[in-house]
Design a protein that fits this description.
Shape of chain B: globular
CATH class of chain B: Alpha Beta
Radius of gyration of chain A: 22 Å
Low-confidence stretches of chain B: none
Low-confidence stretches of chain A: 1-6, 8-17, 93-100, 116-127
Mean pLDDT of chain A: 82
CATH architecture of chain B: 3-Layer(aba) Sandwich
Shape of chain A: globular
CATH superfamily of chain B: P-loop containing nucleotide triphosphate hydrolases
Number of strands of chain B: 12
Number of helices of chain B: 9
Oligomer: heterodimer
Distance between the termini of chain B: 34 Å
Largest sheet of chain B: 6 strands, mixed
CATH topology of chain B: Rossmann fold
Largest interface: A-B, 26 and 33 residues
Number of strands of chain A: 23
Distance between the termini of chain A: 12 Å
Helix content of chain B: 25-40%
Mean pLDDT of chain B: 92
Structural class of chain B: alpha/beta
């Protein structure tokens, strides 16, 4: 073996720290910690919302007060003190009326560090982007190009003001205010997020993208995304997330609602890389997210997620297949390392006839982490000839991590066809040695094996995203063997 | 090329190799034979640098350089190749992707840039023709669902592409039918030249009819107990190993 000194080890560990863990010192306006009706009102006022929105928030808040945090997930953590979190933080330099050129240069420098220079995004990629830092949406590029097609892509705060009829009609219809503890909290205090509407028959010519970033200490991020694809339209939507490295846990409780009307298709891809905590399990983001989509007749919703970050993940992007012949898909890669815990999966609710769903879940566990797949396939009595195929594969690295699968199936219609396959495998020393012998070092060998394992899901991501996701998988698992 | 001096190695405190001496010069083919459990495959793994084996005594020199402190991939970069007795499966990784990674990692270690796609394609095409490998085979997951023969042919295909200085073929003949054996052996013979060397580990004479050795060594209980020319292999085929054991124990 080559010599591996203490210094080498230290050097190696240094380079393996969370790459996005910087904090940018930008002036922020942050509300005092704590949550009560006044704070909810203040958020609404700050955002100059109409009264109906304020009332909607308050209704959610009152419901939330009587709710309890769910405990059924296979995760253990110290529950956040909801009175010790600031519910609103905004970089003060942001003014929604300004153009990109007016954005705080520090903020722009931060995007550069994240590898998402807004200018470059604008010029080089065919990606329209909305960026949410802490609580506020700071830049929406490509607005003009999109508006020519009648596509609305803006922050949800703007949408509440500019398109209240759409927001009012759809918000909370798929994820009701009282859906669950975190969704209720989000409904009360959501500070920003993205809104997207694709008109009838329009195929969105570019990928729409939102980038989320928690910057300020002690703040929670509660963004809300609403995507509406009108009849016969198509949109592909991307979402990325990072946060600075901090010793304390940060809370992220988002809600995403997708509505695919007749014959519409929504493809929603997420690369989630919130700070996972350090190697000893200190710090990291609590990621408690409710994502759900509704499919009308012949519509299709496809969720693809690559989950590498967060200390604790609780997330089940789901599809309600209401319309006949509608299709729901869920493709997921969840990586846990060190002390990370993930409980993630999906729900496919078949209501309409001839509805079809596919679930491909790939869990990769390393270190002392716990990785659970939890999924529900529900076939309602009227859903004649519904079909589901589920495949849940787990890959283990080392002897101290865990992989769990909790598949639930409820079939109330005899014509349903449901298939479930599951495998568990371990990266073997023999596989590594085989690669080593061909000149491939251990880190690279693991990346190769993991990429092979995840291929079916990686292939579902848009090209540029797939490359980023592949890199992220490598970074997340560095140092996990040895 | 390869010089092994008084090599002792153990796994989990069990001594497997108990003093191996072996000298392999460029252009030579050496066969290592011996009964089951005599340490043949262990010797191959130790030369290739498998971590579980601990070298307790002795040296392994490759072109005069002591390599036993080097990691397996570093030895590979220096031109050591092992054709595995039981090649592992890597699901989702195609033969092409694996080969591409192996080539480029080796080039990187030698300070070279990635091989241009055009060159790689040309090389893969040439070598796959040489080993009568179907194009479809290249897009399959590495060794997944391969027959025994396909696995071994894939090993020699990789050898052809990586062009090692020292190739060790560990029981490459097992699981091959006559036709596959001929194709594999022809491949090895075409790759042989005056600058490289081959060590063939086998139980049987039949592979040695195709890949003719310059030297034959017999291993027993972790040592080379007899060496000779190719006629020694014929002797073993006729008489088995018992007479060797008797000689050693006498």
């Amino acid at each position: 073996m080559s010599k591996y000194t203490e210094d080498d080890l230290r050097e190696e560990l240094k380079t393996k720290e969370y790459e996005y863990g910087f904090y940018t010192d930008i002036d922020s306006e942050t509300f005092p910690n704590g949550l009560n009706e006044d704070i909810v009102r203040a958020i609404s006022k700050k955002k100059e919302e109409p009264q109906w929105m304020t009332d909607w928030r308050l209704e959610a808040f009152r419901a939330w007060q009587d709710m309890e945090e769910p405990e059924w997930a296979n995760v253990n953590y110290k529950k956040p003190d909801f009175q010790d979190i600031a519910y609103y933080s905004a970089p003060v330099a942001v003014d929604p009326n300004k153009t990109l050129d007016d954005v705080d240069p520090d903020l722009l420098a931060m995007y550069k560090k994240l590898g998402i220079s807004v200018d470059e995004q604008k010029k080089m990629n065919n990606v329209a982007m909305d960026i949410v830092v802490d609580s506020v949406s700071v830049a929406t590029t490509f607005k003009k190009t999109l508006s020519e097609k009648g596509i609305i892509f803006m922050s949800i705060s703007e949408a509440i003001k500019e398109h209240p009829e759409l927001v009012k009609k759809y918000m909370g219809t798929i994820v009701p205010q009282k859906d669950n503890f975190y969704a209720a909290l989000n409904s009360a205090v959501f500070s920003d997020g993205s809104f997207c509407y694709i008109p009838k028959g329009v195929r969105c010519p570019m990928e729409l993208s939102t980038y989320f970033r928690i910057n300020q200490a002690g703040t929670g991020q509660f963004e809300r995304t609403l995507v509406i694809a009108d009849e016969g339209s198509y949109v592909s939507y991307l979402e990325g997330c990072t946060a600075p490295s901090r010793d304390e846990n940060q809370l992220h409780a988002a809600v995403v609602e997708l509505i695919a009307l007749d014959d519409a298709e929504i493809k929603y891809s997420t690369v989630q890389n919130w700070y996972p905590g350090n190697a000893e399990g200190k710090g990291g983001v609590f990621n408690f997210v409710t994502k759900r989509g509704l499919c009308e007749k012949n519509a299709k919703i496809s969720w693809t997620q690559v989950e590498t970050g967060s200390a604790v993940t609780w997330k089940y992007p789901s599809c309600v297949l209401k319309g006949d012949n509608s299709i729901g898909e869920f493709y997921s890669i969840a990586v846990t390392n060190n002390y990370q815990q993930a409980d993630t999966g999906t729900k496919m609710i078949h209501l309409g006839k001839n509805t079809r769903s596919t679930i491909i879940s790939k869990g990769i566990s390393a270190g002392k982490s716990q990785n659970s797949y939890r999924g529900l396939v529900k076939i309602n009595p009227n859903a004649d000839h519904a079909r589901n195929f589920s495949q849940c594969d787990s890959l283990l690295m080392g002897n101290e991590c865990g992989a769990h699968t909790f598949p639930y199936i409820e079939a109330k219609n005899k014509t349903a066809q449901i298939e479930h396959e599951a495998t568990t495998s371990k990266i073997g020393e023999d596989q590594i040695f085989y690669c080593n012998q061909r000149g491939i070092d251990t880190e690279k060998a693991i990346a190769l094996i993991v990429n092979g394992f995840s291929k079916e899901v990686l292939n579902k991501l848009p090209m540029e995203f797939a490359v980023e996701a592949q890199k992220l998988l490598e970074i997340s698992l560095e140092g996990s063997v040895g | 090329m390869l010089e092994i001096k008084n090599l002792h190695a153990s796994v989990e405190d069990k001594n497997i190799l108990r003093g191996i001496d072996l000298q392999v010069n460029p252009g030579e083919v050496h066969a290592i034979m011996g009964p089951n459990g005599s340490g043949k495959s262990t010797l191959a793994s130790v030369i290739a640098g498998k971590e579980e084996y601990e070298v307790t005594e002795g040296n392994i020199l490759l072109e005069g350089e002591d390599i036993e402190e080097l990691a397996a991939e570093e030895r590979a970069h220096k031109g050591v190749f092992l054709s595995f007795q039981y090649p592992v499966e890597i699901p989702g990784v195609t033969v092409t992707n694996f080969i591409k990674t192996a080539i480029n990692e080796t080039r990187k270690a030698r300070g070279l840039d990635d091989m241009p796609a055009k060159d790689m394609l040309k090389m893969i095409r040439e070598k796959s023709e040489m080993l009568e490998i179907d194009r479809k085979f290249l897009s399959r997951s590495l060794n997944e669902g391969f027959s025994g023969g396909e696995k071994k042919r894939n090993e020699i295909f990789q050898m052809a592409i990586l062009e090692p200085k020292l190739a060790i073929l560990d029981e490459t003949d097992s699981g091959l039918d006559i036709d596959a054996l001929r194709i594999v052996a022809n491949g090895v013979n075409k790759l042989k030249n005056k600058d490289n060397a081959v060590i063939v580990i086998t139980h049987y004479q039949r592979l040695l009819d195709h890949i003719v050795p310059d030297f034959v060594h017999v291993m027993y209980e972790g040592r080379i107990v007899k060496s000779g020319g190719k006629e020694l292999a014929h002797q073993l085929e006729e008489k088995g190993y018992d007479w060797i054991k008797e000689e050693v124990n006498a």
